[in-house]
Fold these 2 entries.
Entry 1:
Amino acid sequence: EAITVQELANRMAEKAADLVKSLFKMGMVVTLNHTIDQDTAELLVEEFGHNIQRVSESDVDIDTTVDVDADETLKNRPPVVAIMGHVDHGKTSLLDALRGTDVVRGEAGGITQHIGAYQIKTKGGDLVTFLDTPGHEAFTEMRMRGANVTDIVILVVAGDDGLMPQTIEAINHTKAAGVPMIVAITKSDKPEFNPQKIRERLLEHEIIVEQMSGDVQDVEVSAKTGAGLQDLIDKILLQAELMELKSNPDRAAEATVIEAKLDKGKGPLATVLINRGTLKVGDIFVVGTQSGRVRAMLDDKGRQVKQAPPSLPVEVLGLGGVPMAGDTLTVVESEARAREVAAFRQEQATTKRTTSAPASLENMFSALAAKQSVIEYPILVKADVQGSVEAIVNALNRLSNDEIKLKVLASGVGAITESDVNLAAASGAPIVGFNVRPNAKAREIIERFKVRMKYFDVIYHLTDDVAKEMAGVWGPER
Ligand code: GDP
């Protein structure tokens, strides 16, 4: 933790000038706003005869967990929808077609801005927000950073093709995130369109669509002719209604960064999605390790907006630097407070980079234990042949008991891939490999994400090991 001379003086109730003098005697020439490191700060504290008391994170940083909105302040908010599926199955085309159904866009005649998300007003007057970055990488990366902005996932499957590797990845990611799914079988205008085949193949992944008497909504669409688009929108609205999506619009805003960049003319820009509250021009905020003041906001139609309510995506101008996707923007009461929190986080980020320990399963389990009585133990399984995958998954499922439920997030044949590692990192799950190893791309990121991985060539060694781990992890907690 680093601290400015002025802040340290305030905390010790000493004159800042006296601290500067002491530092000078120690050979350091500093001003009041100079940041000094922890060791130097401790030396000073001792020199002035005070006790060293380290502040905890929550003393300085913003703790939103204590800041819960009362039920009566909650109002309905539009759903936030992400589109996932295999490359070339029509995600971009569908996003464009859905954008085209916006009843406001025609009137305003504004220029479409690509800001990473857009909102449409439906014929019935309801609003829907779409994340305009197709693909599950964005979704997973946000989730890894703890940001869950997506309420509903549309799984796009081309009806003239089948379930492809990225379709299955998208299914796994969506399931792991616990986000409800609507299946859109696209390209219905094509002569080869065969939606029934898709529905049947989805059964293998435990997705039973309505047409197969299940409860996952499905719809046939064509981005080319527009057929089925209204049906899809109706299903999104129905799903949203079931979910009772609400937040408090009348408070200081909190938003999630979905895209950020440095613009040559406008400086650092971030597209944010408002989670709760209303963001206003002039608001002072912290976003990740940056602070700033809202100078202007633009919507996806390129129009200036003075206020942004929940679920509206807006591009924010007035940041001190470029934040990261997944960062939370929080409005604070003063510039001093914004700078203090940003500086604190910057310091934390530097120390974390050098000292961070792998996120331990122990931590994860105690966190989970606090929340629910049955703990889920997530795991990913990769093996060399389908027969082994099935045998391992069956054996692992038998390890579940009343306290710990083993949940195989994904299983499959072949080397451990980048996507497996991403899913494991986002879910805090280990990966077990049976006669397989990670491929080169996966190896590159394993270290970065601190994903735990074990390899076996005898099935009962694998199950024994997992059983021990489950017991061991749970054991000391009781
Ligand atoms: P993405 O990679 O999933 O974003 O897929 P794209 O939206 O880029 O679509 C891939 C290809 O399929 C393009 O050549 C599109 O023109 C075509 N395509 C997408 N949707 C439809 C559709 O509904 N009907 C037809 N006939 N072609 C489509």
Note: DSSP finds 16 helices and 22 strands in the chain.
Entry 2:
Amino acid sequence: MMTTLLIKGGIVVNADRQFQADVLCVDGVIAQIDETICAPEDAQVIDASGQLVMPGGIDPHTHMNFPFMGTTTVDDFYSGTSAALAGGTTTIIDFVIPNPQEPLLEAYQKWRRWAESAVADYSFHVAITWWDESVRQDMKTLVEQHGVNSFKHFMAYKNAIMCDDETLVNSFRRSLELGAMPTVHAENGELVYLLQQQVKEMGITGPEGHPLSRPAMVEAEAANRAIAIADVIGVPIYVVHVSCQESADAIARARARGQRVYGEVLAGHLVIDDSVYRDPDYTQAAAHVMSPPFRPKHHQEALWTGLQSGQLHTTATDHCTFCAAQKAAGADDFAKIPNGCGGVEERMAVIWDAGVGTGRLTPSEFVAITSANAAKLFNIYPRKGLIAVGSDADLVIWDPQASRTISAKTHHSNNDFNVFEGRTVTGIPSHTISHGKVVWANGQLHVEKGAGHYIKRAAFGDNFTANATRQQQLTPTAVKR
Ligand code: DUC
Ligand code: ZN
Ligand code: ZN
Ligand code: ZN
């Protein structure tokens, strides 16, 4: 059946410009954008006057249904993508994370099955957690047959999913050959392990030990190392959840030398600081345990200026939800608290409120960092991340005047906690449209289990290189003797 939706009277905001226009969506695709469009027969019409019409958000970093640290996240793909849509995010890029020795393709198929309940579009980065010839082969199959164009490397989580340098080097080289973007969780896992033991020897076993074991320098070391490895190999690199000034500086320095390095910032790191770990209530403090941890306040300014200046590119959430009962596993040892916090529903409104609402960002810059840049960096632009004829009709109608107060009592995640609890945000979605269908309107979800599509992402082409001139400098010439 044809579905026709006309959005009338709003201001279309793309990353490059904004203009007043009506938007007609037919069968899941944007069919027409014009100053005035007359409603076709049978069209559903939304009056968007006084509101902004933006590309639906893309959260390039979530973990739904993730088995991690002895338990599994409370959000599966159904609840997690429902929450996403309620917050204006219409696409997530989640992670396939094989256990060491687990064949990549088996892990990938497992995650694809788990994601069949998704109500919004989704895609997968695949983590490289171990190395042998089969991994090399499976990376090719994933790129060429399954639309995976990015691989993730955890530089932390020793004795679990951590990559050593040998695996990083092998995988970065393979990524370059295949035209796939290597991404890193930058924390030195060896140092985290050492500091966890030292902090516990000092008698600190509560959640306040978590940030002490993962200071900014631990992140910066890994960010610098990953960037250097990528530079030598000649492959671009994307650093996930940049949380501190030192990592942001490492990225800016590399970019100033001409290297292609990209940085992602989490909504939580922009507005929450490390005082949460000193809350006397264990449940409150443990609920904020994620890695990298929330940082002393001054780091937030570095993240904002990175986004404003274009040195940092995307925003995400690392949505990875564990409830109070799961967080209780670390009551006697902070290192056993399952790492992760939510945010997939709150990201857009929190960043609008703290970014556009304060004058740090324009609405177009907001679209860039919440949608368009992720679409470009992961090669799904302009299908996603743009309001244009032929693009997917994944849209958010944004009411810049409306406010709401965030609470676990009203959010759509299965979690019993919300790290943004009590925060009142101005600027929220009145409608979310996924595939030309209204899936969120005036506080109500209208979702259909399994309606989300798996999004294949093509490999990058011939100009996929960290920096061609620098690679030429590295090309050796034998000395004739
Ligand atoms: N950090 C988290 O807090 N959770 C999931 C994995 C990660 O890197
Ligand atoms: Zn991570
Ligand atoms: Zn993550
Ligand atoms: Zn779709």
Note: Residues 55-386+455-463 form a domain with the TIM Barrel fold (CATH 3.20.20.140).
